[in-house]
Amino acid sequence: MLALFHRATEYDQRMQGARWTIACICLLHLQIQTLAQFPMLRFKHYTIKHGLPQNTVLCIAQDQQGFIWLGTQDGLCRYDGYSFRVFRHRPNDSTTPSVNYITRLHVARDGTLWIGTADGGLNAYNYRTQRFTVHMHKPENPHSIADNTIQALYEDQDGTIWVGTEHGGLSIFSPKQQHWKRLNFKTLDGHILSKNRVYAILKDHQGTIWVGTYGDGLYCFRPSDSTLVQRYCYHPANPQGLNSNIITSLHEDSNGNLWIGTIGGGISRLDTRRQHFTRFVHVPSDPSTLSNNSVWSIERDSLGSIWIATNDGLNLFDHTTERFLHYKHNPSDPSSLSDNLLARTKLFCDRHGVVWIGTNVGGVNTLDIHQKKFYSFRQFVSSQNVYSASGQAVRALYEDHYG
């Protein structure tokens, strides 16, 4: 009888252990499924503590020497991988920019660093002389740049610099001829449309120029004769059209689709061949949709992934499911995004595969998409971390489709 009791006790203990093992495996599988849908990433942060002149980083570029340039509201700075060198305006000093408020940056094919400013015109930095040449709007000169506040910079294959301004529409500059031209859109019937606020410029693989405006929708025209091919506007009665007339960013993907970031309307993706729009908007009840409908930047990294900066965090587009992964600031995680508000900022992918994310109050963040790291999931209580491990003992490992 005693032996039977011992065998029953041993059986119960084995069954209890088996149930515990199965429960752990199920819990681990559930966590792995969640993590596969939301790959954890570590962001590095650079702020005024590291030498930035200010924590609002609006634009980023990389020059031919490999230096990273960052534009802030209080100066231009250059990062060499170790420290920041700050360039601030000094009166009557051509070795400094015209103003401290830097809005846009672009490194041209000839090596010139073009620097858009707020009310300080367009600056060109010469590496050989280490001096800034300033292009300012002059009301009496129709061949000067159209406005002194720059909102968009783009360079075409010919080296022509296209400049979108806040109050003067579109200007183009020929470095070879050192000549400015103000460009008005002309409709097919010859009517001229002068649009002031140009926030995004893109030339697609077919040579068509796309211009996104702040309030007047999207324009498509032929650069050879400035003839307007088509204009796209938001119409509430058309659910298949453009989401918003306030356009902040344009991006052409590997399939030739045009991604259009808007304020208030999320993203519109235009299939230019079929003339069909696909809308991506924030749905509060669906966490796999866009995190916010105000989109400021769309950028593709060296692996082909598309990143989106919004008013509420960073988004990563999943090409397979056409859903979005969200990356936001988590006070309990020092390696999370430093700030969720990415308004007016531009994303940038450097030549080494590092994604640079400017923020409004959190400085600049970097993410090395090529460097695989180990992440420690330890047990702790946090209302904002649903991915922490439930215990310290790990009995199984599994590789997801992110590697």
Give a structural overview.
The chain has 403 residues and is mainly β. Helix content is 9%, strand content 36%. Strands 1-30-29-28 form a 4-stranded antiparallel β-sheet, with no helix packed on it. A hairpin with a 5-residue loop joins strand 10 (150-155) and strand 11. The longest helix has 36 residues, at 2-37. It is globular. It starts with a helix and ends in a 35-residue tail after the last strand. The relative contact order is 0.11. Mean pLDDT is 85; it is low at 1-6, 23-37 and 372-392.
The strand order across the widest sheet is 1-30-29-28
Q: What integer is the average pLDDT?
A: 85
Q: Class by helix and strand content?
A: mainly beta
Radius of gyration: 26 Å
The total strand number stands at: 30
Instruction: Please report which band the strand proportion falls in: under 5%, 5-15%, 15-25%, 25-35%, 35-45% or over 45%.
Output: 35-45%
**Shape annotation:** globular
The stretches of 5 or more residues where confidence is low (pLDDT under 50) are 1-6, 23-37, 372-392
Helix coverage percent: under 10%
Distance between the termini: 55 Å
Largest sheet: 4 strands, antiparallel
Question: Count of DSSP helices?
Answer: 1
